[in-house]
Amino acid sequence: MKKILLLTIALCISISGYAQETGSVLIKNGTVMTITDGNKADTDVLIEDGVITDIGKDLSAPRGVKTVDASGKYVMPGIIDAHSHIAAVDVNEWTNPVTAEVSMEESIDPTDINIYWALAGGVTSIHLMHGSANVIGGQNETLKLRYGSNMDGMRFEGAPRTIKFALGENPTRVHGQGFDVKPRTRMGVEQVIRDHFDAALDYRRNRQEYLDAKKAYENGNLDTPPVPVAKNERLEVLVDIIEGEVWVHTHSYRADEIVMLMRVFNDYGIENFTFQHANEAFKVAPELKKNNAYTSVFADWWAYKFEVYYSTAYNASILNANGVRNSINSDSGELIRHLNHEAAKAVHYGGTSKQDALKMITINPAMQLGIDDKVGSIEEGKHGDVAIWDGHPLSIYSIAEKTFVDGKKYFDRSEDKDDMRLEADAETDFDEGRSRWYNENGRQNNTCLRGAEIRFTKQGMKLNQSRN
Amino acid sequence: MKYFKSLLTTCLLVFVIGMNVEAQITEKAEYGKFAITNATIHTVSNGVIENGVVLIDGEKIVHVGQNAKITADYQRIDATGKHIYPGFMDAGTQLGLQEIGAVAVTNDQAELGNLNPHVRAFTAINPSSVSIPVTRVNGVTHVVSLPVSGLISGKSTLIDLYGYSPDSMAVSANAGLHLNWPSAQKGGWWDDRSDKKIKEQYEKRLKTLNDLWSKAEFYHKMMSAYEKNPENKSKPDGNKKMQAMREVITGKIPVIISVDAKKDILNAIEWTKEHPDARFILAGVQDGWRVAEEIAEAGLPCLVSTLYTPERDYDNYQRPYQNPGKLHEAGVKVAIATGGVENVRNAPYHAGYAATYGLGKEEALKAITLNSAEIFGVDDKLGSIEKGKQANLFISDGDPFEPMNHIEQVFIRGYKIPMISRHTQLYDEYLNRGAKSNN
Q1: In CATH, what is the architecture of B23-87+384-439?
Q2: Chain mean pLDDT for chain A
Q3: In what helix (H) or strand (E) does residue A263 lie, and over which residues does it extend?
Q4: What CATH superfamily classification does A79-375 receive?
Q5: Which of A10, A51, A96, A105 minimizes the number of CB atoms within 10 Å of its CB?
Q6: How far is Cα A411 from Cα A400, in angstroms, rounded to an integer?
Q7: Quick check: helix, strand or coil at residue A59?
Q8: What is the pTM of this model?
Q9: Which residue has the higher pLDDT, A38 or A456?
Q10: Alpha-carbon Rg of chain B, whole angstroms?
């Protein structure tokens, strides 16, 4: 009987193709930061086959399960970054103001060293986003940082589909200024979205009528074959958005454009959406709350372009005080290394409680990505995605020591080597180096406009297709 | 009568509230005599004083210690349970030179031309930059702002962050000459130049630098001879670039060499040895930990940050955090320089990372205060809480390296600074957006 069971399991694994390696571990005597149920001192967490099965005192390890002593340490859910471009191959399909048909699902680089560096900062999941060059960009992919697995192995199974929208300067600059293609203004941005939603609704009706008629013809209930309505992947995805199957994450900055999009979404019955960056979200916090909108913001980035000049680092605290569910993201290969301290800035600017600050990098981003039933807190039945810190994670003196995904250890500071690359690059010369000091504000790494930067040349404007 | 009384109270209340609203918009710095009492004073130069008093009179600190006679003319600030630190200094920024990154007309840090020793950051500092109050309310009171383009970018300026003109803010109008060290190696995976080409370009740029230097030496000799004896000679033609180099080659102001990679650092060290009369500082120095001994032996101080990704994909993830600690361990004097503009306010966290990863709290505190002051030769005025020094300090509710803690009051040059910036003003306006009721 046991053999049959094992065989069945093996068969399931080979069919699904990428069932993940899971692990089991008993983490003893730590301060467990459950996020949803307060902090529990001197408490054990048992993870079996990737799932948290018990939280309590004096648990004993089942046979074969290793024990990790966390006395004097903090056990925290893995940090979730709701806005990332690490582990990306390409970021921007910028050739059209609307590219809903493209997806990051085939644009994942599982060997990116930034994955390991993020694990070393206690991060276990990221929202790998398409860029912000177009009004309706490509679909995003939610990943688990299973460093060492392949592209399929990185996927967060069961996460809802999401898509990137972008308002304001980026799409108007790339398309309106760069190519003389609508939109050049925020007025145009609204109409591009409405035009395409309208087209999607027409398409849904026409396509359905065609399919019904085709069926009727095939069944002999119709004498003449109907005129075909071809399948259109771009419009299919837009229909999925209207039907609530694809959640929208919108790159946005100004208060007026945030309100505009909520008006549009209300008109089309779209309910599940997050405003990304949203530097001026604090100005319309009551409206965001009323519309059950989520926000995912920087802790303190501002002034790098005009639409973020009227920003405040108190954004997260104002949103939180107004009841808006907010997360703090990185959008950067650098900030993702210390999102815990980015969250601590919500305490610094505006006195958000430590508990709420921690939610902004755990359960809140999990809700925004639709994975809060699986991760984002330490609860029985949730995934074994946790990190052990040598002190309170919001303190600058605390260091992540171990990071587990599905109960499997992917980072251990005590076993950390210098070169943690998966594939050694023969072309990498030891003496190669980058001089970056004077540009160092994090914006150049893995940013939203990667692959679509506009250059001004003597011949006019050009799109720069360099990697950064 | 009762009615009259309550009317009076209401009037008074309205008046007071009205004043407060006005105060928030136009609040000015205060200047005079201040007594900060009952504080834990982190002097940096003389350890920590518990339950201490700092007296400020005008621009200067006039007393630091546990006991003080406080006369009635001092405004008292009770700092029970609070901490006092010297104002922090970021030794490498573009603050005041750039307002909005993507708006080119607001960027003044990169002049055209390859050799610009006469170009001065001091000239272009915008005292009204919105980023300046944003920075100083986080405890950063001083910055070095520097130009960035070409081989020789120009002269950087050391300013404090309170004032209505660059002149009133300047500690050293010309703090150093900024040199982008010519690299002798690939810039990254995208750099497809051949080894031969890289070597040629390096040698060409080095020659440009050396030519400028030797011309400047000749010019200095010629000018000095004339200046010694102006009656007997006709005045040589002036040259602004050469004139600007004179204070550099004679060591009056240092050359700040921006350099990151190991090979380039070693080349730069060799080059500095050819100029014993000049003074040099290394900046950036991301590979510093690889050649810490060599840098220490050359006696070169380093301006470094911590919050960046490792120089190379195959470097350990902690190297940027450990770099200041490893340099210090080898005997190098380090100071924090973020390279930032609008977020120079994060300089304390760069120091915090250095502290956590090997430098230790005490040395990290020096790296963001006294070390910078010493490196730029202004430690007679800045860098520590001592009697006779300028009153540049702040009061905090805890360790300022902790992002969770708060800076409560900042003093710059004796001025008690309003703790207001665009960021706090937007907070005050939008936290509760509803209008005030009129009844």
Answers
A1: Roll (2.30)
A2: 90
A3: helix A255-268
A4: Metal-dependent hydrolases (3.20.20.140)
A5: A10
A6: 9
A7: coil
A8: 0.92
A9: A38
A10: 25
